[in-house]
Specification:
By secondary structure, this protein is mainly beta. The chain contains three helices and ten strands; from the N terminus they run αβββββββααβββ. The radius of gyration is 20 Å and the shape is globular. The protein starts with 22 loop residues before the first helix and ends in a 12-residue tail after the last strand. InterPro entries: Intradiol_dOase_C, Intradiol_dOase_core, Intradiol_RC_Dioxygenase, Protocat_dOase_a.
């Protein structure tokens, strides 16, 4: 009789493991403030741009909504964007006035909004050589989402660039394209853009398979 684990691993069937580690786990490790835990001295969070960053300072806010129309209050979002010149800053350093990478999360208070403090990105060249409209890449992690979702945020006041963007125009339906367009707002004299992400159902956000 074979003892447990005595057979070669090549003969053993590998069991499924959980790919879904969002829920409370991602917040405990990566969104400490949202989980109600003490924050670290050095944290990759939602302040992607600080004073001194080149470009137009903006805030981006939104919610995450499920297929029932209810707020997802523990979603986690990662953002990746170009700087004002349309270049990605690949070296992350908290001392820099701008970093291309940031993280945010919805919460159980303040209307369950996620937010980013950043600068408006410049146009990035597409593989075809044609410029893409200014945008922010977003990855969404949430309960019930086994593999994170990839989407983009475009800007309402970049209509001409949006109409010519080689990625955005690949979406055939103009109505569906609108799910990626953030609305411009002005709050206390500051520019803010709002994008609500709908995971399922009516008005579902366009997601990309990168």
């Amino acid at each position: 009789m074979n003892q447990p684990n005595s057979r070669p691993s090549s003969e053993l069937m590998l069991r499924e493991t959980a790919s879904q580690t969002a829920g409370p786990y991602v917040h405990i490790g990566l969104a400490l403030a949202a989980a109600g835990n003490p924050t670290r001295d050095e944290e990759i969070w939602n302040e992607m741009a600080r004073e001194g960053a080149e470009g137009e300072q903006i805030e981006v806010v939104g919610t995450v909504i499920d297929g029932n129309g209810d707020l997802v209050r523990d979603a986690f979002i990662e953002a990746w964007q170009a700087d004002a010149k349309g270049e990605y800053q690949r070296e992350f350093d908290l001392k820099k006035p701008f970093n291309s990478f940031g993280r945010t999360a919805t919460t159980f208070d303040h209307g369950s909004e996620w937010s980013l403090k950043t600068i408006k990105p410049g146009p990035v060249a597409h593989a075809s050589g044609q410029p893409q409209a200014p945008h922010i890449n977003l990855s969404i992690f949430a309960r019930g989402v086994n593999i994170h979702l990839q989407t983009r945020l475009y800007f309402e006041d970049e209509a001409e660039a949006n109409a010519a963007c080689p990625v955005l125009t690949r979406i055939e339906s103009p109505t569906r394209r609108q799910t990626l367009i953030a609305r411009r707002e002005e709050v206390d004299g500051k520019v803010r853009y709002r994008l609500d992400i709908r995971l399922q159902g009516e008005g579902e956000t366009v997601f990309f398979d990168f």
